[in-house]
Design brief:
Layout lengths: L16 E3 L2 E3 L6 E5 L7 H13 L4 E5 L3 H12 L5 E4 L4 H9 L4 E3 L8 H13 L4 E6 L5 H7 L4 H17 L5 E6 L3 H12 L7 E2 L7 H17 L5 E3 L6 H14 L7 E5 L10 H11 L7 E6 L5 H6 L3 E4 L4 E6 L2 E8 L3 H21 L1
Bound molecules: iron/sulfur cluster (SF4).
The site of iron/sulfur cluster has 11 residues, from loops.
Length: 368
């Protein structure tokens, strides 16, 4: 058994809500979310995308419901999906009531934007009756006008003031089944806002760097922002916002959690950057295996290192490891060098087979 230093992160104490079958807060595993980017009224395309997200391990999916037609489509989608679904609604309280009737698992709606007291109360009462939590979502790009004027520009305090307005509305209605996000596209702004909010409320926090950018820059910004917060114990669920296939959001989310040793899922590849010493094509091997092994959810570390400079050292602390050698490469299991060696030309197939066998074995041991 390979031992890694455990993270020593102490999670912020929070209350718990349940988004369908997924618990959020109060020590529950940090849930990874994503959002569909199909037209919700295109029921087939949306279902297909949700199923793809499920295959890469998403815990919860958010679907935007901008119209009553979309609410009707949501009903059909919900009937064919097992994973919890959140409806993203802006302003129209009738849509919130409709999707509640259709079995939504959480409403992403800001009570302060619903309209008069009667409308707010009808949505909150309905959520209470049906045990549906609410996510309050504040975004640095759409702060209320008076808050913008007061602060001059989006600041952490401005985001939190906006969030607290919505929180106060729910408090007055004795509704505590909610979580809050204070997202911004600027890393420091978002991090500052979450830190401030973390000390003000007891509810779970949904983390995100909003409109983070394309795949590469968005992943980097999210890793820095969420990495800072998560390493301080702040955050109970997250969504990585990328201008990319939502599948990538889920993968990046898990990679951030894996890197912090907060939550492991699937293979954590350790690979060298390669140089002229490499004995087999490390980059092609890693890329091929990442694709081929997307279905593996068993947590394990696999080191793929091009030569003996760093190979044995990494293999010692990996579940499985290969170290490039002349024509044939050394293979390690649980840190122990095996007699078996892999032909450098057959590396991808051989390693895939070993990883699958190991995953089966680890899964079997866990069940026992
Ligand atoms: S481990 Fe070997 S092949 Fe990989 S980068 Fe280092 S020296 Fe180069």
């Amino acid at each position: 058994m390979i031992m890694h230093p455990e993270n020593s992160i102490k999670r912020r104490q929070s209350t718990r809500i349940n988004v369908g079958k997924v618990p959020i807060g109060d020590g529950a595993p940090i849930a990874v979310q994503s959002m569909t980017n199909t037209k919700t009224t295109d029921v087939d395309a949306t279902i297909e995308q949700i199923k793809r997200l499920e295959r890469v391990g998403v815990d919860i999916v958010r679907v935007s419901v901008p119209t009553m037609d979309a609410a009707e489509a949501f009903k059909l989608i919900k009937q064919q999906i097992n994973i919890p679904l959140i409806a993203d609604i802006h302003f129209d309280y009738r849509i919130a009531l409709k999707v509640a009737e259709y079995g939504v698992d959480c409403l992403r709606i800001n009570p302060g934007n619903i309209g008069n007291q009667e409308r707010i109360r009808s949505v909150v009462d309905c959520a209470r009756d049906k045990n549906i939590p609410i996510r309050i979502g504040v975004n640095g790009g759409s702060l209320e006008k008076d808050i913008q004027e007061k602060y001059g520009e989006p600041t952490p305090a401005a985001l939190v003031e906006s969030a607290m307005r919505h929180v106060d509305i729910l408090d007055k209605l004795n509704f505590d089944q909610f979580k809050v996000s204070v997202k911004a596209s600027d890393v420091f702004l978002a991090v500052g806002a979450y830190r401030l909010l973390a000390g003000k409320i007891d509810q779970p926090l949904h983390l995100g760097i909003t409109e983070a950018g394309g795949f590469r820059s968005g992943a980097v910004k999210s890793a820095i922002g969420l990495g800072l917060l998560l390493s301080e114990g702040i955050g109970d669920t997250l969504r990585i916002s990328l201008a990319a296939d939502p599948i990538e959001e889920v993968k990046v989310g898990f990679d951030i959690l894996k890197s912090l040793r907060i939550r492991s899922r699937g293979i954590n590849f350790i690979a060298c950057p390669t140089c002229s010493r490499q004995e087999f094509d490390v980059i092609a091997t890693v890329n091929a295996l990442e694709q081929r092994l997307e279905d593996i959810i068993t947590p394990m570390d696999v080191s793929i290192i091009g030569c003996v400079v760093n190979g044995p050292g990494e293999a010692l602390i990996s579940t499985l490891g290969v170290t490039g050698g002349n024509k044939k490469s050394g293979f390690y299991e649980d840190g122990i060098r095996q007699k078996e060696r892999f032909d450098n030309h057959d590396m991808i197939d051989a390693l895939e087979q070993k990883i699958r066998q190991k995953a089966l074995m680890l899964d079997k041991n866990r069940i026992i």
